[in-house]
Amino acid sequence: MNYKELILQIDKSKMPKHIAIIMDGNGRWAELHNTKRINGHKKGVETVRRIVETSVEIGLEYLTVYAFSTENWKRAKPEVNYLLKLIIDSLVKEIDELIKNNVSVRFLGRKENLSKNYNKKVIETCKRSWNNTGLHLNAAMNYGGRQELTDAFNDIFAEMKSGKISENEINEEIINSHLYTANMPDPDLIIRTSGEERLSNFLIWQSAYSEFWFTQTLWPDFSREEFIRAILDFQKRKRRYGAR
Ligand code: IPE
Ligand code: IPE
Ligand code: MG
Question: Which residues, chain by chain, have CB under 5 Å from ion ligand 3?
């Protein structure tokens, strides 16, 4: 089936609200093509573009892509620096097109470790899209699930100390509202490319009842057709949430 035919198979009444993607395999793609790792990342940005376009086309509400984890700082400095620059440059380059497509963009993650200038540029650029009502695009940047929870607990503790919330008040809703994903639905579907089958510290709280979809395809090769196939597979699943 070609792309258009695949899209027609989508059951609009069973659309996932939120899809999250662990974009993995850029380095292996580069190795396979006898080129430097950074060229794999560069190629990976083209895939992001393609998948965002497709998400807009099918009317997806939330798309979260894992761009840089809190653990990715362990990589060689030149690669880290290249990734940081690539991510901000891509945002700046694509923002007009994103705005035109009614997309609103947010970065989810820790501000610390990123320079003041970097954070400023991110906010300034993203802000321009915040009146949009179409796809909510999140880039998980300097993101770690455990760090997100730690930050949430610290915020809650501070609010408890100041009396904004009382001691016995902590519940799931309060925790949710202190995460970077506050006010967003949990991911219905989490896709990971490159054959790895793990979360790598991605949305660990929010994924409690997510459906997972894994593929051997390396991120730079991930096609819009395969993305739609993941959604079609998702639509065949029966979600039980513990009920029978
Ligand atoms: C994913 O590709 C991109 C980021 C983690 C930023 P990798 O760079 O992890 O690629 P592999 O896993 O080494 O192939
Ligand atoms: C997860 O990929 C992080 C991103 C996609 C940004 P990694 O390649 O860093 O994960 P591990 O190290 O294989 O678990
Ligand atoms: Mg990897």
Answer: 24
User: How many angstroms does the Cα of residue 50 sit away from the middle of ligand 2?
Assistant: 21
In a domain, 81, yes or no: yes
pLDDT at 244 over 90: no
Tell me how far the alpha carbon of residue 7 lies from the centroid of ligand 3, in angstroms: 29
Compute the distance between CA of residue 244 and CA of residue 199 in angstroms, rounded to an integer.
26
Catalytic residues: 24, 72
Question: Is 197 part of a structural domain of the chain?
Answer: yes
CB neighbour class for 172 (10 Å; exposed up to 12, middle 13-18, buried from 19): exposed
pLDDT digits (tens, 9 = 90+) for 50-67: 999 999 999 999 999 999
Mean confidence (pLDDT) of the chain: 98
Q: In whole angstroms, give the CA distance from residue 164 to residue 223.
A: 47
- Give the model's confidence band at 168: pLDDT under 50 very low, under 70 low, under 90 confident, else very high: confident
> For 180-191, how does the pLDDT look when each residue is reduced to its tens digit (9 = 90+)?
999 999 999 999
1: in domain = no
Closest Cα to atom 10, ligand 2: which residue? 200
Total number of domains in the chain: 1
Nearest bound ligand to the CA of residue 21: 2
Q: 71 lies in a domain? A: yes
Q: What is the CATH number of the domain that holds 160?
A: 3.40.1180.10
Distance from residue 112's CA to the centre of ligand 2 (Å): 20
DSSP per residue over 37-75, as a string?
Answer: HHHHHHHHHHHHHHHHHHHHHHT-SEEEEEEEETTGGGS
